[in-house]
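User: Hey, my collaborator sent me this sequence without any context and asked if I could get a structure. I don't really work with proteins. Can you help?
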Amino acid sequence: MELEILDADGKVIRKLKATKPRAGMNRVKWDLRHEPPRLVALRTVAPENTHIWNEPRFRDVDSRPITHWGAKPAEVGPLVAPGAYNGAP
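Assistant: No problem. I've predicted the 3D structure and written it out in C-alpha coordinate form, which is a compact way to encode the shape of the chain:
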Protein backbone atom coordinates (compact mmCIF):
# COMPACT_ATOMS: atom_id res chain seq x y z
CA MET A 1 0.00 0.00 0.00
CA GLU A 2 1.30 3.44 -0.91
CA LEU A 3 0.00 6.70 0.54
CA GLU A 4 0.64 10.17 -0.88
CA ILE A 5 0.60 13.24 1.37
CA LEU A 6 -0.80 16.23 -0.54
CA ASP A 7 -0.69 19.93 0.29
CA ALA A 8 -3.69 22.27 -0.09
CA ASP A 9 -2.93 22.69 -3.83
CA GLY A 10 -2.87 18.92 -4.43
CA LYS A 11 0.92 18.79 -4.84
CA VAL A 12 2.58 15.58 -3.57
CA ILE A 13 4.68 16.33 -0.49
CA ARG A 14 5.68 12.78 0.47
CA LYS A 15 5.05 9.19 -0.59
CA LEU A 16 4.81 6.59 2.18
CA LYS A 17 4.53 2.81 2.01
CA ALA A 18 2.97 0.49 4.57
CA THR A 19 5.57 -2.07 5.64
CA LYS A 20 3.17 -5.02 6.04
CA PRO A 21 -0.22 -4.10 4.59
CA ARG A 22 -3.11 -6.41 5.45
CA ALA A 23 -6.79 -6.47 4.64
CA GLY A 24 -8.70 -4.06 6.88
CA MET A 25 -7.35 -1.05 8.77
CA ASN A 26 -3.66 -0.19 8.37
CA ARG A 27 -1.50 2.48 9.96
CA VAL A 28 1.22 4.58 8.32
CA LYS A 29 3.36 7.03 10.30
CA TRP A 30 4.39 10.39 8.75
CA ASP A 31 7.17 12.39 10.42
CA LEU A 32 5.87 15.71 8.97
CA ARG A 33 8.80 15.95 6.56
CA HIS A 34 9.23 16.31 2.80
CA GLU A 35 10.93 13.54 0.78
CA PRO A 36 14.59 13.08 1.72
CA PRO A 37 17.11 14.53 -0.74
CA ARG A 38 18.79 12.26 -3.28
CA LEU A 39 22.38 11.51 -2.37
CA VAL A 40 25.10 12.57 -4.78
CA ALA A 41 26.68 9.56 -6.51
CA LEU A 42 29.90 9.21 -8.48
CA ARG A 43 29.46 7.57 -11.90
CA THR A 44 32.78 8.37 -13.60
CA VAL A 45 36.44 7.66 -12.90
CA ALA A 46 38.39 10.52 -11.41
CA PRO A 47 41.50 11.14 -13.59
CA GLU A 48 43.74 11.56 -10.52
CA ASN A 49 42.35 8.46 -8.78
CA THR A 50 41.70 5.73 -11.35
CA HIS A 51 41.80 2.91 -8.77
CA ILE A 52 38.70 4.24 -7.00
CA TRP A 53 36.48 1.46 -8.48
CA ASN A 54 38.91 -1.34 -7.53
CA GLU A 55 37.60 -1.67 -4.00
CA PRO A 56 35.55 -4.90 -3.61
CA ARG A 57 32.47 -3.04 -2.31
CA PHE A 58 32.22 -1.04 -5.56
CA ARG A 59 32.72 -3.84 -8.11
CA ASP A 60 29.78 -4.52 -10.42
CA VAL A 61 27.90 -1.34 -9.47
CA ASP A 62 27.19 1.66 -11.70
CA SER A 63 27.63 4.35 -9.04
CA ARG A 64 29.11 4.87 -5.60
CA PRO A 65 28.31 7.38 -2.85
CA ILE A 66 30.51 10.41 -2.40
CA THR A 67 31.90 10.84 1.11
CA HIS A 68 32.16 14.34 2.51
CA TRP A 69 34.56 14.01 5.42
CA GLY A 70 33.27 15.82 8.49
CA ALA A 71 29.75 16.25 7.09
CA LYS A 72 26.98 13.69 7.43
CA PRO A 73 24.71 13.33 4.39
CA ALA A 74 21.16 14.59 4.76
CA GLU A 75 19.01 11.57 5.60
CA VAL A 76 15.68 13.33 6.05
CA GLY A 77 13.85 16.07 4.22
CA PRO A 78 12.92 19.46 5.69
CA LEU A 79 9.88 19.82 7.94
CA VAL A 80 6.67 20.89 6.22
CA ALA A 81 5.16 24.29 6.95
CA PRO A 82 2.08 24.39 9.18
CA GLY A 83 -1.09 23.94 7.17
CA ALA A 84 -3.71 21.48 5.95
CA TYR A 85 -2.53 18.24 4.33
CA ASN A 86 -4.49 15.36 2.83
CA GLY A 87 -3.68 11.71 2.32
CA ALA A 88 -4.52 9.91 -0.92
CA PRO A 89 -4.05 6.17 -1.47
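In plain terms: The beta strands are 2-6, 12-17, 41-42, 64-65, 86-88. You can pass these C-alpha coordinates on to your collaborator as they are.
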